[in-house]
Amino acid sequence: MMEIRYPTELDDFFFDLQGYLILKEAAEPALIDDLNRAFDQFPPIEPGAWWGNAQRRDYTVDTGYELHNCVEAGEPFERLIDHPSWIAYVRHFCGEEQSYVQGLFIDECIASIRKSGGHHPVHSGGYKGAMRGAFGYKHGVFRCGQVNIILALTDIGEGDGPTMVVPGSHKSNFPHPLAGDYGRGDRMDELPGAIPVYLKAGDALLFVDGLMHGGSSRTNPGERRIVIYRYGPSWGATRFGYEYSQTLLNRLTSERRAILQPIPPNRPDDSVEDV
Ligand SMILES: O=C(O)CCC(=O)C(=O)O
Prior knowledge:
four-stranded antiparallel β-sheet
């Protein structure tokens, strides 16, 4: 069992300054192996098709195979919910610490396979950013709307389609004049200010969603495999309306269940026996 990692003062400093952190050797090799084996079992379904309670839903035609709600796609994905390498970080940055709604929720979780030619267009940034992904720090506490963990399941170096970020752009007051348009699918490979984040399998990139980011073009053969878990405050909702199945919720530890269902449904019928 890995030790819980807690954010340090230096982490706070760089997260505030740059909007992201790299968590080296975040996931243990056995977990990476189990996740890769789970990826090997993904069926070759078309976009829109369901696999149990997970759905293939590629963000764009260029992103490649993206399985949403992947926490329903096998036990290894459940281990990521409260992984000791990042759970204290996300609680700290987007868990509404020291407030009456303290807690977390996973509002999206995606397993992504990128092949040669694929990319994810540049998007986000502080300029006119949605509250959902906003960076916040006030009165000694972080108040971010969404903090993402991108966990590498394969080594991601040059040509492998590394995620790119524009450090500091979570606080931008201006649009990036060369960032183009998500709808047009503009590639971010040459975007001034953007840097590639190279990861070894098991490393994780943590970033506030309000940071300008995207996935650069993969030019190498083979597959880039990552898992993306998006954390936000306890009162959040899933972006595309996915609901975690009762079967999944029932088998989770109470700590994990509380992250997928921080506020259990409250209906008249549920409380009859308590009256
Ligand atoms: O695929 C990537 O590297 C980036 C993913 C991304 O930009 C996103 O999910 O918002």
